[in-house]
Write a structure and sequence with these properties.
The chain is an all-alpha fold. 67% of the residues lie in helices and 0% in strands.
């Protein structure tokens, strides 16, 4: 059972595809966030450098947590692929499901207003 879903020969590739699409989306999101870089010290005041350093430290910790979550989802995906093989699914079917899941373009979530 994966997150309350019943994995059967009929559902394994669908569940695998959903999990791997989420892995792909989250990996792309993390990469996009890392491209932004560090929070600069915005003001000329003595507080800004400390605030920027604190923000960067907390952000780095959150990114590590996110990466651990993504790695866990990827491991679930690997287990689902192994289950699909055990159910007799062909490697071509598994590969096609993965290719479809990772072909979904990354679109950042809208910024809150």
């Amino acid at each position: 059972m994966v997150a309350g879903l019943r994995v059967t020969p009929e559902t394994v590739l669908g569940i695998y595809g959903v999990i791997m699409e989420e892995v792909h989306r989250l990996r792309e999101s993390i990469l996009a966030f890392r491209r932004v870089g560090q929070m600069p010290a915005l003001g000329g005041d003595p507080v800004s450098p400390c605030a920027a350093a604190g923000f960067n430290e907390v952000t780095h910790q959150l990114l590590q947590q996110c990466q651990a979550h993504v790695d866990g989802l990827a491991a679930v995906g690997e287990q689902l692929a192994a289950s699909a093989r055990a159910y007799g699914k062909r490697e071509e079917e598994i590969t096609a499901t993965l290719e479809h899941a990772t072909s979904v373009p990354y679109v950042p979530s809208p910024s809150p207003t």
